Amino acid sequence: MIPGPYLLYLGHSADPIGIKTSRGLATFRPDDCVGEFRYDDCPLTLGLKRLTIAEGASAGSRTLVLGIANSGGTMGADLIADAVAALEAGMNVAAGLHQRLRDVPRLVALARERGLSLFDVRDPPADLMVGTGYPRAGRRLLTVGTDCSVGKMYATLALTTALRARGIAADFRATGQTGILIAGGGIPVDAVVADFISGAIEQLAPARADDGWDVIEGQGSLFHPSFAGVSTGLLHGAQAEAIVLCHEPGRAHMRGLPGRTLPELAECLAMNLQVARLTSPSVRAVGVCLNTSALDAVAARALCERTEDVLGLPCTDPIAFGVESIIDALYAPHA
């Protein structure tokens, strides 16, 4: 486990989606966060107390979490300098970037000198096996998306919480850096060699016999040219009994790909079900989760109702309205 409490890093970030890891920790583990570190040119905030690195250490932070993401997941000179400052202030450093902290000699040497640790969250297990697709016991739900960063992790956590509130055994299975930091474990599927992705998910959500659920966090989108491979491996490895589609209304284009539009919801659902049937022939869709944070409550509710009418599935914003309708659908009799 990464020692808490945490100082959350925003740095110079100007992209709200790019700080989703820091935001996820602030949302789901607020008691473990002492504040946020950001520069004057950063227009974003998590609503936490703004602290310098020295102030964060004085406030009791044990780890600076570099909770930002960029294309390629690399660390620039400024990020490395801030990590150095954190180590010099007596904090460990954690990051979920593709570029590893352990590959920066200056950080490794300083951490060793100060008796501190570097945590690379995007490290998959070393003993992964290739997937088989053979049937295994247990009930599994997978979230899928029209695009990256549309709320799959939020929906997965909300569904897990709602199942537990009904007295049903349920486990959140994290597959991305933010989810892993929140849950304290998981497999960063986008860092797994392609041949092992489905096997990694079979290992993450193994057979179970308690009639409980593994609620698996989805990644990417089958319609995103950059990340569809990860989404496919997740669908095959999950062998999900049920899928929930996640979407952000009003998004102008696929993340990072101006000019490429998002798929229609019905089209996206149909494709995900088709791919999932390779290893789970009876898979079914049980709901849609919309990220309506840009809409007012009346417009958000109306959009959910229209989506329900079009798709014939319960539709909700898991943060604004909860996911009870989807849990009801999960347990409703079906053909």
Automatic annotation (TrEMBL):
SUPFAM superfamilies found in the cross-reference section: P-loop containing nucleoside triphosphate hydrolases
Domain D-glutamate N-acetyltransferase-like N-terminal span(s) in chain numbering: 49-124
Pfam families: DUF1611, DUF1611_N
Domain called D-glutamate N-acetyltransferase-like C-terminal: residue spans: 132-326
Protein name stated in the entry: N-acetyltransferase DgcN
Origin species: Sphingomonas echinoides
